[in-house]
Amino acid sequence: MRVGILTGGGDCPGLNAVIRGIVHAAGEGYETYGILNGWKGMLTKEMIKLDNDDVEGIHILGGTILGTARVNPFKDEESRQLLEKNFKEMKLDALIAIGGDDTLSVAARLSSLGYPVIGVPKTIDNDVSNTDYTFGFHTAVNVGADAIDRLHSTAKSHQRVMIVELMGREAGWITIEAGMAAGAHLILIPEFPMTINEIVNYVNKRMQEKKYMIIAVAEGFKPTELEQVVADKSTIDAFGHIRLGGIAHYLAEIIEQKTGYETRSVVLGHLLRGGTPTAFDRILGTRYGVEAMNLVKEKDFGRMVALKGNQIVSIPLEYGVATKKLVPFEYYKLAQLFFD
Ligand code: F6P
C-alpha cells in the first residue's frame, strides 16, 4: 500500500517528528512517500520515497524536510481536476495531510469526494478546533516567553514601555501563554479588544508606580476604535489588521505620543516558529504520526488525529476545520489578574 505524506501551510516545529512517526509506524506492506511542498507537490507530482533511514534523527529539526507551501488546489477548477488526476496517477492508496485549517480543509474536501485521506492538525497558533493542543505551539510559547523574559531587564534599566508582538492573527493563544509565563504587565489579544484610552490608562498607572512596563500583543489585536484613530485607511488590511509596520509599532507610537513615556517595540514574528521543537512537541508530533498511520492501516479515512486530555484520539476531519479555537473569557480573566 502506498501512503503519501504532505506538510502544508506555515512550517512548524514538530512537523519532522510527525513524518518520522508515520514512517516508523508503517512497517511491512506499506510504502511511505513524501509529497514535496504541500498541495503544490500534488499538482506537480513531486514525491520522494521515505524509509526509516531517511527520517533518522529528523524529529529534532525545525521546519519540514518535505518543504511546504500555501497552495489550495480547490481555488480553481483546473487545479482541482489536476489534483484528482494526479492522486490516481501517483497511485496513492492513502494520503496523510499535516497542516492547519487551510491544509485540513483541502483534506476534508478531498475526503468528501471519496479519497482516502487522514489529517494531522498543525499550527503554532493552537487554534484548530477539537484538539487540546497542536504541536509547535509549546515551542512558540517557550521562545516567546524567553524573549519577554529578556525584555524585562532592558525595559527596567531604561524605564521604558516595551511592546512585544507575537504571532496569532485570530487567536491569542501564543501571546496569552507566553505573556503569562514571562509576566507581561498587559496582554492584548484579538479575542478581547480594548480601546486606546484603556491601554493608555494601564500604561500611566503602571509607569507612575513601577517605572517600566512590558506589553505583549498578538499580531491580530485591533484597538476597539481603530477605524476612527487611523486616518489613513490604507494602513488596515482586509482583515482589519494593521498593515504597515504591525500593531506593536503602531501602539508604540501612539502610547509614546499620548503618555510621554519612552516606548519601544519588538516583533518576534517568524522567530517563534523557527528552530528545534521542544521535547513536548517532538513527542506530540510522534504520537500524532503513529496514530495517523494506524488509522491508515485500519482504513479509517476521513479522520483527523487529536489530543483529548492525554489521549490521542481521532475525530471526523471536518470537526477540526469547522471553527477556530479561540481563547475563552475565563482564561483571559485569569491572565487579567496579573495586569498591573
Ligand atoms: O499559521 C501560523 C502562522 O505563523 C501565524 O501565526 C502567522 O500569522 C502566519 O502563520 C504567518 O504566515 P507567513 O509565514 O505566511 O507570513
From TrEMBL:
Keyword line: Cytoplasm, Glycolysis, Kinase, Magnesium, Metal-binding, Transferase
Residues holding diphosphate: G10
Keyword flag Magnesium: yes
Catalytic machinery residues: D125
Site positions for Important for catalytic activity: K122
Catalytic activity: beta-D-fructose 6-phosphate + diphosphate = beta-D-fructose 1,6-bisphosphate + phosphate + H(+)
Site (Important for catalytic activity and substrate specificity): D102
EC number(s) recorded for this UniProt protein: 2.7.1.90
Subcellular location: Cytoplasm
Known pathway: Carbohydrate degradation; glycolysis; D-glyceraldehyde 3-phosphate and glycerone phosphate from D-glucose: step 3/4
Required co-factors: Mg(2+)
Top-level taxon in the UniProt lineage: Bacteria
Binding site for Mg(2+): D101
Sequence ranges assigned to domain Phosphofructokinase in this UniProt record: 2-295
Binding site for substrate: T123, I124, D125, R160, M167, G168, R169, E219, R264, H270, L271, L272, R273
Similarity section: Belongs to the phosphofructokinase type A (PFKA) family. Mixed-substrate PFK group III subfamily.
Complexes and interactors: Homodimer or homotetramer.
Protein name (database record): Pyrophosphate--fructose 6-phosphate 1-phosphotransferase
Organism from which the protein derives: Marinitoga aeolica
